[in-house]
Amino acid sequence: MRLHDHMLSKRAILPNGSQQGSTLIAVLLLLLMITVLGVIAMKQGLTSLSLSTNAQIQNLLTQSSDSVLNTVANADIAKIASVTGVIGAALANKTPNQEYVFCYRPTSTDNFGLSLNANIISGKTTAAVDGTSNVNNVDVGGNGFCDLDVDFGSGRRAAVTQVAVTVPTDASTPLLSGLSHNGTDVSLGSSLPQGFTTQQRVRVTATSMLPAFSASTTASIESDCLQGRISDNTDPSFAAVETVTDCLARKGVPANTQVQEFSLRTTLTGP
Fold first, then answer.
1. Quick check: is 226 in a domain?
2. Residue 108's domain spans which residues?
């Protein structure tokens, strides 16, 4: 009887141990599923954060470059077209494919090149390789190129905007934003006609960037991109030339470039 009782007791223990092993396996599978779901949720969260960050970056850069174009559109025409300023000097010079480059400093009293504090460059028609400048320095007397450690567009010390002003030479009719300067009187005795209107075109290229988001040093970005590349390659002869925007993209710098052509119309009217 004792041996039989012992065998029954042993048989009773075996099913219980099997159940404990099954429970352990189920718990491990459940933990594995929870871990997988957690990893998936974390990746989705990081993706959503990345998308949100990219959207904020693009919004900030677009606003920064828009600010430049709005400044031109709403400027005092008499001041902005003065030969002592960047736009006026470019219009007076009219040399094909020259760029008047300056840094947009909205917190400065001279926020949009009303004084001729610019560098004048022209492009080389040969495509530049990495690290080789594709510009000719016509006049380096100004302080036009942006300093990525100083020339931030606001107190946030994030966005920097460099501007290039060119005078288009193509004969096509562009889509322009008009800037009028009317009311200059011409006397009847003048040799000029009593009603006379001139129109001059100017192209403004604004490139805003966030250098802090790049692994490249600010010094290399300045020398290779801001100082060593043209901004405007609309001329067919420069189609293969790397621009400032292309260079920034190659260095992983988030950037936004907007181009707007303006038409400066001067109307002379007689009494």
1. yes
2. 50-269
